[in-house]
Amino acid sequence: MKTTAQLSVSIERFQRVFWKKLSEGRPPIGVVNTDIYLPVKYLRRPFARQYVEPQDVRTDTVMTDYEFAFAERPVNCDDWIPFAAPWRAIPWLEAWCGCPVRFSSGSLGPDPICDSIEALAGAPLPAREEWFTCLRQQTELLAASAPPDCWISPTILRGPSDVLAALRGLTNFLCDLRDAPDVIARAAGRIHQLLIRAIDEHFSVVKPKCGGYGHIFGYWAPGPTIALQEDALGLCHPDLYRDLFMTYTAEAVRHLGPCVVFHMHSTGFQHFRQVLRIPGLAGLQMTIEANGPPLADLLPVFREILEQSRLLLFLDHRFEELSAVLPRLPREGLYLAIPASCLKNEAAFLQFAKTHWPTDV
Predict the structure, then answer these.
(1) Exposure of 251 by Cβ count < 10 A (0-12 exposed, 13-18 middle, 19+ buried)?
(2) pLDDT tens digits for 245-266?
(3) End-to-end CA gap in the chain
(4) DSSP β-bridge partners for residue 268
(5) What is the pTM of this model?
(6) Among residues of the chain, what percentage have pLDDT more than 90?
(7) What's the pLDDT at 361?
(8) CB 95 within 8 A of CB 111
(9) Which residues pair with 260 in a beta bridge?
(10) Using CA atoms, how far apart are residues 3 and 111, in angstroms rounded to an integer?
(11) 283 and 309 in contact (C-beta within 8 Å)?
(12) pLDDT value, residue 25
């Protein structure tokens, strides 16, 4: 468990170097147990049937994020903000829109339900209100029982393109972008309204703690925050994001305020310049994948992002390349999330910080 003093130092660092983009001190660094991004591991026992229902999401079946990963940590002198969120293995928006939630040993996933573009155009959205009720109940339960060093984060709420890819199946969705863009745009608008409703519901329950909010990427924000995403569009030309989906990202930022970030992967970030043009967006979060470009090749992208906005960099892979890149990156507006397998204890963390910011540990 983190102490109040440790949290205060980290919050001040997030406020100063990340949010205000000042050059005083090192950037915030979070050390993360990467198993939290495989939340099916939170199951106390496997489900007995193939499809999961809202009544299956209970404290006796699923551990919380905090219980699984944060109650005892080998590193507490970092800046990671512990969190709990409604179980992120559930594809909440997809389930709310009617996709059955299929269980397998490695993950939960939504099954497509619209076998034609006409079926999508006429689909009731939402289709299963009981999933939204479950989401609110989970949020209320977490908020009522949060430990002193735990913030309640929004769960993963995927963007309209990701939900449409779930409803139609990815291949059909990609064809729809070419064959029926008007139908896709209208359906995206309906899904966007559900996303806004879910976000509003979260922040009607969750109030600020120590002057701000936490998130599943381990950062602290001075206002309501969420990471939006359109991962399905990482396979597409950036103009498709600009023409069909960008307006919904912009509306979400206007609606929620200046602490909204946008999530991307290093394997599919072609639309990052379009995202950066959104007024008021707080920054970009990029997850570094093993099969994506080397960090040296991404350095110009990182610098371009930091010149215009903020960068939350999650080194899921390629940590060994980071030391060659960090001296060439501005610290202002930067946040690093590093796997616990790379910084296994507090001595390793302090040595890493001292090596790169010798006067600012």
Answers:
(1) middle
(2) 999 999 999 999 999 999 999 9
(3) 21
(4) 265
(5) 0.96
(6) 96
(7) 60
(8) no
(9) 226
(10) 43
(11) yes
(12) 94
3-state class (DSSP) for residue 339: strand
Cβ–Cβ < 8 Å for 58, 48:
no
By DSSP bridging, strand 108-110 and strand 220-221 are unpaired
DSSP H helical segments within 30-179, as ranges? 65, 92-96, 117-121, 129-145, 160-168, 170-179
**Closest to 60 in 3D by CA, of 48, 72, 43:** 43
Q: What CA–CA distance (Å, rounded) separates 143 from 85?
A: 9
**Which two tokens mark 119?**
């079926």
The span from the CA of 315 to the CA of 332, in Å, is 18
Contact 308, 21 (CB under 8 A): no
- Alpha-carbon span 93 to 206, nearest angstrom: 19
C-alpha span between 325 and 308 (Å, rounded): 19
Is-contact 231 145, C-beta < 8 A? no
User: Which DSSP category does 43 fall into?
Assistant: B
What are φ and ψ of residue 232, in 5° steps?
Answer: -60, -25
Q: Where are the alpha helices (DSSP H) in the chain?
A: 4-13, 65, 92-96, 117-121, 129-145, 160-168, 170-179, 181-205, 238-240, 246-256, 272-276, 295-308, 322-325, 346-356
**Buried residues in 319-332 as b, exposed as e (16+ CB within 10 A):** bebbeebbeebebb
- 10, 220 Cβ separation under 8 angstroms: yes
Bin 64: left if φ > 0, else alpha if -120 < ψ < 50, else beta. beta
What digits encode the pLDDT tens for the residues 203-258?
999 999 999 999 999 999 999 999 999 999 999 999 999 999 999 999 999 999 99
Cβ atoms of 318 and 347 within 8 Å: the answer is no
Positive or negative CA dihedral for 148, 213, 215, 64? positive
Structure tokens of 209? 């703690």
Q: Residue 143 is which amino acid?
A: A
